[in-house]
Structures are given as C-alpha cells and as structure tokens.
Design a protein that fits this description.
With 254 residues, the protein is of the alpha+beta class. It is built from 8 helices and 15 strands. The chain is 33% helix and 27% strand. A hairpin with a 4-residue loop joins strand 7 and strand 8. The longest helix is centred in the first third of the chain and has 19 residues.
Length: 254
C-alpha cells in the first residue's frame, strides 16, 4: 500500500469527523494549563489514525500527541488536531497532520484543513502540492512587502510583534502551526515563527516548506529537525531579516 496515498485519504476522513464537532467539541478540559486544552475529539481523531496505521503497517512505530509515544526506525508522526483552541471555539484554522520518517529522515508529510478542504503534502525530492497542484513559496524579497505569522507563546509573542510590526505589511496569528507553515509553502504567508513546538506540531511542514522552495531553521538559523523546539519557516528571501527580529525580541524579553 502506498503510504502517501493512504495518509491523504486518512486525514480527509478524519477531517470529515472533525467538521461534525467543530465548535461543539466533546468533553473539553485543561491539559497542562488553562491555555492548553484537549477534547474527546482530539482523542477520537487520533484513535482513528492510529488504528488505521496499526492495521495496515503493524510493525511501524507511532508518535502521536495524545499520549502515544513510540520510537522506531520507521516512524509515523501524528497530530490529530493542530489548533485545538480554534476547533473548540468554532474558529476555522485547525488542521490534521501526518508525517512518515525512516531513520529520522522525513520522507513525506501531509496536512489537511477540513474547513477549506485543502490538503497540502510533499514527498521528499518530489515537490510540494495542494489538492494535486504544485505549490511554491512567495517571491517577496523584503519585509515591507511581507505578511508574517507568529504562534502564541507567553513572554515572546508580544516582544516579537513589537520588534517587527513597523517593518512588515501585517502580522497574523492563525493558531495552527501546520496551517501557518503550509501557508508559507503556498505563498500566502512569507514567514512563520513558532517559538515553541513539539515534533508532531511541525513534522509534515518540515518537509512541505523546503519542497515548496522555502527555508526552515531553528530560531538561531541552524538547520531544523524534529527536536529543535523553535522554528522559522520562510520563503528563504526574508529569512535573515526575520532572524534578526527574533534576536531583538528575545533580547527585549530578558
């Protein structure tokens, strides 16, 4: 069975389930704090994905957000709902993410937006796509022509916006890392800063953005990997300028 085709069909099926509960999530509760929540929909969506992977690829490991942590040379990385806060509150920016890696190298990544019915995906060395059409990052070469996105992180986000707001056209906060980075891949955003993200939050887009011609590093400009923690996704052309703004924001936060 083709893993990429399997994953595309799976995220779309999970997306249909999530739309049934969008804005009316089941049993919402705090996870690690009042700013970090989970619902039964997260758990059920993950179980759909895990069950299907285990059925068709029984000897492969799965790393999934909701307490399913395995390691292996062949590894599936799963985020059943990236943007749970948006999902719970009936906001449209949330996505389903699946990536597949062998020997710590991501071979493909898939992101599905149930609301817009958009599926972003990439296969290593074969480009990036949205609903079957090839996508590319923007050609904007200066911040003054750019629209950027930043994730919510207490003690950083405000400082970053203060540092960059006079240098860009606009800043946005989508509330979903996989969608924000996918928007970089297709040229809707010119960059996206994630101060803190887990492997499942970014695994698919660590491949999708470069395959679309973009750049991904940690917040110091070093090559990104699943354990980098912080990430900058960009079209490559404004990358160095945004890194300087990140440094400025971190200095002001001290």
């Amino acid at each position: 069975m083709d893993r990429l085709d399997f994953s595309i069909k799976l995220v779309r099926r999970v997306g249909l389930y999530l739309l049934q509960h969008w804005g009316n999530a089941l049993n919402v509760r705090e996870k690690t704090s009042f700013q970090d929540i989970v619902s039964d929909c997260d758990k059920h969506a993950q179980q759909i994905i895990v069950n299907d992977i285990q059925k068709h690829f029984p000897n492969e490991a799965i790393l999934a957000e909701e307490d399913h942590f395995e390691i292996g040379k062949k590894l599936w990385i799963v985020d059943p709902i990236d943007g749970t806060m948006n999902f719970v509150h009936g906001l449209p920016s949330f996505g389903v993410g699946i990536a597949y890696a062998e020997n710590n190298q991501i071979l493909f990544g898939v992101v599905h937006d149930p609301v817009l019915n958009e599926t972003f995906y990439a296969l290593k060395n074969q480009g990036a796509y949205k609903n079957g059409e090839k996508i590319e990052v923007s050609s904007n070469a200066s911040l003054k022509e750019s629209i950027g996105n930043v994730g919510f992180y207490v003690g950083f986000t405000g400082h970053f916006i203060n540092a960059i707001e006079k240098h860009v056209r606009r800043m946005r906060m989508m509330g979903s890392a996989v969608l924000a980075a996918s928007y970089v891949a297709c040229g809707r955003f010119d960059f996206f800063v994630a101060k803190r993200a887990n492997a499942w939050d970014v695994a698919p887009v660590l491949l999708i953005v470069p395959e679309a011609g973009g750049c991904v590093t940690d917040l110091k400009g070093k090559p990104a990997n699943l354990s980098s923690g912080g990430y900058l996704f960009s079209n490559g052309k404004v990358h160095s300028e945004v890194l300087k703004m990140i440094e400025k924001a971190e200095e002001s936060a001290r």
